[in-house]
């Protein structure tokens, strides 16, 4: 009689306890590497970056981050969608709807200003968060990679600023233009 | 409308939670901590070493060493420093300690008393009657003081006195430090991952904020104490005061207690100067100059530079903390009471600040 069950026999599941699921990391890297912030990074860079990511799952209508609370970092949408909303008196304005591959909250990686709008999950949504305290640690520990990320953040923010200026010009409100 | 969740905890419920937490802390301090004293000491010491080693480990990692190699390098260097300390400092310490205890045993209170009476009689005739003591009273005092001192010393070092405890500590502390250094990031991450979405950002921010502040505080405190100890040691040694190393350590330890500590340090240092230095008056003046000088240097340069954000504690709380620390851990407890209180204060204040900023309360 076989006293011990073979480890690879059917019915016995052996899964690593402390390692994250490879599929989720692979999927996350694939999504992230398509964003402007993380595109073109080397395998070595990803090895230093992946421990910084936080995988979060949100239910439908669950608040991701709320208006007025301190901004801590940015989120990248892996699957699902989010809507950016703001209360105006009794009604709620939907400012934007973001899909898989989009990101938001990147300015919170730079400073700790309060969130300027509320972000709510639309359906089951998976996000990856990267946050300021860990980015600051990365900048100290891996300055080269830190400079690359900060440079790209600056490009993204400048791009947003130009876009906002363009919209103001289109509306004819040139008094509120940010300095070029 | 977006779901409105703020504040999550009402003011009334928050008061109840605060009271419950306070009660839990009091119960833990009174009943639980004395039971697990050894474990608490091992954990605290391991955390202190971890916070000291972390910046060096990060520096080695920046130089390109993998984390394990960085930690092993650190351990090898630390072992070298320990061997160096054992070879150089410990013989001086034990020689001075042995000589100091021998000197304490030789104190002739009767000679000191009669000398004092003679001097007082010369300065203020007739007043020496105040110092007239019955025969045997002095010896009784000496025995009482010696008994009290030895019982306190026994209490203080009881924890360290057992060979088994020392062995467990010496094994556990490096083991824990190794794993704190190697895995604390991952462990913290895994804990944070379990936090519900509602509190996730707050918890992450809180953990990093407390970690940064504690690191700065512990490293600052240790650097400050080492500088004070070394300065006192060198200044006293240059002046030829005996037991300078022990007195440096004593001054550094007393300096851990704000307000009263630096004043209390004058008594042991003064006692040694009176016993060993001639002329006594000059020795006492130099002692005051040195201790005051070190104290001024500490308040004006060390504290603002090394501990950038000093923890504000009311003097009454210092006294209460020192008494509670003394009750739980004798002399060792007295010296670490204020740093432990400061650490708890940093955690509580930061926790409260985060609860408010994230509109939980």
Model description:
The complex is a heterodimer of chains A (180) and B (361). In chain A, a hairpin with a 2-residue loop joins strand 3 (73-88) and strand 4 (91-98). Mean pLDDT of chain A is 81; it is low at 1-22. Chain A has a single domain (22-171), classed as Jelly Rolls (Sandwich), CATH 2.60.120.10. In chain A, 24% of the residues are buried. In chain A, strands 1, 2, 3, 4, 5 and 6 form a 6-stranded antiparallel beta sheet that branches. Helices cover 32% and strands 27% of the residues of chain A. Chain A is an alpha+beta fold and 180 residues long. Chain B has a domain at 198-361. Chain B contains 12 helices and no strands. In chain B, helix 2 (37-62) crosses helix 3, helix 5 packs parallel to helix 12 and helix 7 (197-238) packs antiparallel against helix 11. The relative contact order of chain B is 0.09. Classes of the chains: A alpha+beta (180), B mainly alpha (361).
Query: Looking at the chains present, what oligomeric state does this protein adopt?
Result: heterodimer
Whole-number total of structural domains of chain A? 1
- Broad CATH class of chain A: Mainly Beta
Average predicted local confidence, pLDDT of chain A? 81
Q: Quick one: which chains have the greatest interface?
A: A-B, 32 and 26 residues
Continuous helix count of chain B: 12
Q: What fraction of residues of chain A sit in β-strands?
A: 25-35%
Tell how many strands the DSSP assignment of chain A holds: 6
Mean pLDDT of chain B: 80
Distance between the termini of chain B: 21 Å
Shape of chain B: globular
CATH 4th-level superfamily of chain A: Jelly Rolls
The dominant shape of chain A is globular
């Amino acid at each position: 009689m076989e006293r011990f069950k073979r480890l690879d026999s059917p019915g016995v599941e052996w899964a690593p306890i402390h390692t994250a699921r490879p599929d989720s990391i692979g999927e996350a890297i694939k999504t992230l590497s398509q964003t402007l912030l993380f595109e073109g990074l080397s395998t070595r860079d990803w090895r230093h970056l992946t421990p910084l990511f936080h995988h979060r799952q949100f239910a439908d209508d669950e608040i991701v981050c709320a208006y007025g609370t301190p901004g801590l970092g940015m989120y990248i949408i892996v699957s699902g969608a989010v809507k950016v909303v703001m209360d105006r008196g009794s009604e709620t304005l939907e400012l934007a709807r973001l899909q898989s591959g989009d990101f938001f909250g990147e300015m919170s990686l730079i400073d700790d200003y309060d969130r300027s709008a509320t972000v709510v999950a639309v359906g089951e949504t998976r996000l990856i968060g990267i946050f300021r305290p860990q980015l600051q640690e990365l900048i100290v520990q891996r300055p080269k990679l830190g400079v690359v990320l900060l440079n790209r953040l600056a490009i993204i923010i400048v791009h947003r600023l130009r876009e906002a200026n363009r919209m103001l010009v289109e509306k004819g409100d040139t008094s509120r233009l940010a300095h070029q | 409308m977006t779901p409105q969740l703020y504040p999550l905890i009402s003011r009334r419920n928050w008061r109840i939670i605060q009271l419950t937490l306070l009660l839990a802390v009091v119960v833990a301090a009174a009943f639980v901590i004395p039971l697990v004293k050894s474990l608490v000491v091992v954990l605290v010491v391991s955390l202190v070493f971890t916070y000291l080693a972390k910046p060096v480990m990060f520096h080695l990692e920046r130089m390109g060493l993998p984390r394990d190699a960085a930690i092993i390098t650190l351990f090898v260097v630390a072992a070298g420093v320990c061997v160096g300390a054992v070879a150089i400092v410990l013989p001086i310490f034990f020689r001075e300690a042995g000589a100091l205890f021998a000197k304490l045993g030789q104190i002739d209170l009767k000679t000191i008393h009669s000398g004092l009476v003679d001097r007082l009689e010369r300065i203020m005739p007739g007043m020496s009657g105040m110092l007239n003591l019955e025969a045997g009273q002095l010896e009784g005092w000496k025995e009482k003081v010696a008994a009290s001192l030895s019982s306190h010393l026994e209490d203080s070092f009881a924890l360290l006195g057992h060979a088994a405890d020392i062995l467990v500590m010496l094994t556990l502390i490096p083991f824990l430090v190794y794993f704190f250094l190697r895995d604390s990031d991952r462990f913290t991450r895994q804990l944070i991952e379990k936090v519900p979405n509602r509190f996730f950002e707050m918890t992450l921010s809180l953990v990093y904020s407390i970690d940064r502040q504690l690191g700065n505080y512990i490293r600052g405190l240790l650097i400050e104490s080492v500088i004070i100890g070394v300065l006192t040691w060198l200044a006293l040694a240059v002046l030829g005061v005996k037991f300078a190393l022990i007195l440096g350590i004593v001054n550094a330890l007393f300096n851990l207690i704000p307000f009263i500590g630096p004043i209390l340090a004058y008594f042991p240092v003064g006692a040694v100067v009176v016993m060993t230095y001639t002329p006594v008056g000059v020795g006492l003046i130099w002692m005051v100059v040195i201790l005051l000088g070190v104290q001024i240097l500490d308040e004006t340069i060390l504290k603002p530079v090394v501990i950038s954000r000093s923890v504000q504690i009311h003097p009454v709380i210092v006294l209460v903390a020192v008494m509670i620390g003394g009750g739980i851990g004798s002399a060792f407890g007295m010296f670490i009471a204020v740093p432990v209180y400061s650490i708890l204060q940093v955690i509580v204040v930061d926790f409260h600040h985060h609860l408010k900023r994230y509109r939980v309360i």
